[in-house]
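Minutes, methods subgroup
Present: GH (chair), OT, SY

1. OT presented the first of two proteins processed in the latest run. Sequence and structure tokens recorded below as shown on screen.
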Amino acid sequence: MLVSGRRRLLTALLQAQKWPFQPSRDMRLVQFQAPHLVGPHLGLETGNGGGVINLNAFDPTLPKTMTQFLEQGEATLSVARRALAAQLPVLPRSEVTFLAPVTRPDKVVCVGMNYVDHCKEQNVPVPKEPIIFSKFASSIVGPYDEVVLPPESQEVDWEVELAVVIGKKGKHIKATDAMAHVAGFTVAHDVSARDWLTTRNGKQWLLGKTFDTFCPLGPALVTKDSVADPHNLKICCRVNGEVVQSSNTNQMVFKTEDLIAWVSQFVTFHPGDVILTGTPPGVGVFRKPPVFLRKGDEVQCEIEELGVIINKVV
């Protein structure tokens, strides 16, 4: 991405924020690239909308991918804490390219119908058990990357979601122990091809959810101890500046702990795994008439305390 493009995104980012930028000592882990660096690096975002501290420059022994960083647990987290407390050089936001905070996870678990107000929007009962599906990891892109409209779909829709990132391996995890397995949270855009969800592929959801670029994530992995209450956060989506989704994560039917307990009955969670926890009301398909994304649209997905991701539709 050209520097001018990064500057435009920074301007849009600052304009988008309903919750003002506040430099903080919160742990906001990122993966990034910069022209003077070779390959992806790990960093710390210096507050929501701030610059980036290069963790690999602070300690060259640290891994350069988030998954490897999380696999090492407290050893690497303690290094990041020391870096956060030190007075280190900060790379200006305009000089870095943000990648998704997690790339190539073992799995991306998704939850359907997990907001009470989203169920009301569809006039369907609230599920008694979590509705689980998945996206392929190849759908993940960065927080400011483009979403590509596939020629195979004419009904591409938006969905802002709270994403949980796993930090510790586990199977058959009790709900009471679940948060010990969580590294933190980030913002997700669960882009969805509605025609492939409702009329194609036997109405199985996988293909309609997993086109390339259909899972923007970011901008940072905000560690769980930096989030006051993940189940009481404002969550919204804007398309071309118009608010289309506005709710609160307190509307979630099944909270993070319940989802981890439920899914871990079936699969082993690994560090870096991502759980998309569902979307609130306001998606395009249920509007009258339905509205879908078109070339040139800009989608901003924002969650209080976590940040905003901005994706141009091409």
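2. SY then presented the second protein from the same run.
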Amino acid sequence: MREECKQTGPSLSAQGYAHQGQKTKHMDWKLEESAQKTDSRVLQEQEVILEDTGEDSISESFRLLQIDVECEHREGEMLPTGSAMWCSKNVQRKQRHWEKIVAAKKSKRKQEKERRKANRVENSGICPQHSKRFLRSLTKERLLEAKHSGPRLCIDLSMTHHMSKKELSRLAGQIRRLYGSNKKANRPFWIYLTGFTTDSPLYEECLRMNDGFSSYLLDITEEDCFSLFPLETLVYLTPDSEHALEDIDLNKVYILGGLVDESIQKKVTFQKAQEHSVNTARLPIQEYMVRCQNEKNYHSEILAINQVFDILSTYFETQNWPEALKKGVSSRKGYILQNSVDDGQPKELQKAKLLEVS
């Protein structure tokens, strides 16, 4: 019996191995069949996608496949610059373009630095460099001194309730430029913003457009300018006045109408000054300037408040009306200085020329 068992043992084992081999082949056949089905399904989906996307997408897909093949072929290659991975010509072109931009910016910064250094050396004996902190304290000292002994300028903001949002934005910008010019002036004015409430749309617009507006060194009051100062000290500057401003008197308070009116209502500020029996004056544009020809035949003496202030500030420092008017009145207003017309011609011919222009 033992011998029979020994003889039959190996045959049974061989049968088991054969049976297991058949199972393995069956599983492999099933896996191959499943893989074929998966491949056919993927191919069908790709065909549907290609039909939907059209010829452009097909060409794009082949282009990407071509790039991938090229990258695989050159994967082991080393660039001369030491880069570990090969890049396409498009990527290399973009890289070179970016490197040029970076180099140009560095060169520009270097040139600007050298220019500033040269200016400091050139002006070292004339205008010594001061720190920003010192300049701020100097500006503050000048403005506070103007509050006690300088000329006074009042911006009448009591007429802003009829203005649109666009006009309010323009007026807020003019106030910012006016204050900036006053800070830079060697002999600044002391500024009053009258008829100005903190809950008004203009105040909100000034806070939005002007950085640090709440810390401006000037007076803001809700009072009207006519009740804030004695009427005999007021001079309302309006282009409709018959009297030209001759000089700036430290005992007077000069008023500018804070009005941006795109509908161009005439004599608004002049009528307001007459209602309160206040003296009026206009800038001496007619006395020192003449009309010049332009395409639109446009001539206007109406200026923004910051332009009027630039004229007043320049005159107060130089005591020269032509120089002051040249700074504040642009050629777009249709006026030029009289000496700009004089070309060495006889006065009779010059007068005739001016009459033709006017």
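Chair's summary of item 2: Residues 1-19, 75-84, 343-358 have pLDDT under 50 and may be disordered.
Next meeting: continue with the remaining queue.
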